[in-house]
């Protein structure tokens, strides 16, 4: 249900409530849906999403193209990404243009710390071929013997 638009989220919320015979879903305010809530893993209770407070960066010169401001949608996506990452499973985020896919991943990777994880950004488009993708990955790797590669 995460790719649903606002009107469809209301319909999906209503459908879920019709199926919820155990009253497991949270009581929500008028005009809000299940999408505004999550189950806190430590308390196992429903809580409302609350994007983190964003502070304007200090400094004389700002690079506005690199400012990442958390939104409700990016906060949700970040939470799901973190939960999947804790399980050491791969994460794939899909969506239309402007849905914060790249921003979420940049915010996630910025919080990992350079001593834990190396990153390499590869941009894809409709013109990207499998060979181009493979070359972009292999260009950053050294063969270390047999089938072993490293950065």
From TrEMBL:
User: GO terms for molecular function, please?
Assistant: dynein intermediate chain binding; dynein light intermediate chain binding
Q: Which GO terms describe its cellular component?
A: dynein complex
Give one Pfam family, short name only: Dynein_AAA_lid
- Report the residue ranges that make up the Dynein heavy chain AAA 5 extension domain in this protein: 1-50
Q: Which Gene3D superfamilies match?
A: 1.10.472.130, P-loop containing nucleotide triphosphate hydrolases
Q: Name one GO biological process term.
A: microtubule-based movement
What is the name attached to this protein's record?
Answer: Dynein heavy chain AAA 5 extension domain-containing protein
């Amino acid at each position: 249900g995460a790719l649903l638009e606002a009107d469809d989220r209301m319909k999906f919320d209503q459908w879920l409530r019709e199926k919820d015979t155990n009253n497991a879903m949270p009581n929500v305010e008028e005009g809000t849906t299940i999408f505004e809530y999550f189950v806190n893993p430590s308390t196992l209770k429903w809580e409302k999403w609350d994007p983190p407070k964003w502070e304007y960066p200090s400094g004389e010169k700002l690079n506005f193209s690199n400012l990442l401001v958390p939104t409700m949608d990016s906060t949700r996506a970040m939470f799901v990404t973190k939960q999947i990452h804790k399980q050491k499973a791969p994460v794939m985020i899909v969506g239309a243009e402007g849905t914060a896919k790249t921003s979420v991943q940049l915010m996630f990777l910025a919080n990992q710390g350079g001593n834990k994880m190396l990153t390499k950004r590869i941009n894809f488009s409709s013109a990207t071929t499998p060979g181009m993708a493979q070359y972009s990955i292999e260009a950053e790797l050294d063969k270390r013997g047999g089938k072993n590669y490293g950065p």
